[in-house]
Amino acid sequence: xQQGEEDPQALSIQEGENATMNCSxxxxxxxxxxxxxxxxxxxxxxxxxxxxxxxxxxxxxxxxLDTSKKSSSLLITASRAADTASYFCGGSNYKLTFGxxxxxxxxx
Amino acid sequence: DADVTQTxxxxxxxxxxxxxxxxxxxxxxxxxxxxxxxxxxxxxLIYYSFDVKDINKGEISDGYSVSRQAQAKFSLSLExxxxxxxxxxxxxxxxxxxxxxxxEQFFGPGTRLTVL
Lengths: 108, 116
What we know:
Helix content of chain A: under 10%
Shape of chain A: globular
Number of strands of chain A: 11
Structural class of chain A: mainly beta
Number of strands of chain B: 11
Number of helices of chain A: 0
Largest sheet of chain B: 7 strands, mixed
Strand content of chain B: over 45%
Structural class of chain B: mainly beta
Order of helices and strands of chain A: EEEEEEEEEEE
Shape of chain B: globular
Number of helices of chain B: 0
Order of helices and strands of chain B: EEEEEEEEEEE
Distance between the termini of chain A: 37 Å
Oligomer: heterodimer
């Protein structure tokens, strides 16, 4: 079973707008990770948030974690066309399991 | 040079053929993983290895086998390829996390496999 489920499946916004993606998971986790994938390429790690953390920032990225709701969100502020990619969350328990991803399109 | 390399990058083969995909890493990580990615299904874990002597099945190991030849090398084999194994295959590595958790994974560039 998948530990991460992203929502929405696809998101299209204009450059400069903020993009918010959500992730839900099923069982308890040690940490939750967000990755980015440009078309057909390998995933690149963006940010890791531990189960005892509620919010974490990295540049234009802001991640929140609500363990009571088993959910996380990724906010990308002031989006750029180069942010166009698929974004995956992965819940880490005894193994890291990914969801199906959110395809973000940022229009110039 | 890339930290995680995969060979070949593209491969077209026929049903019933044996195929080996290779992965090498220079990051010095203990843990290595094989995933496949299909449109609409995301990434699914095939096998993972915590060290040379520790190999584990993932979500979808049927039809696949692996070999951890050394800390730096982890190969994936399809003993008798079938068309529904057509997919994008990724190798990844990570070091040990605290308390059994997983640290970030570093992915290779992927191998696009087509089985006719």
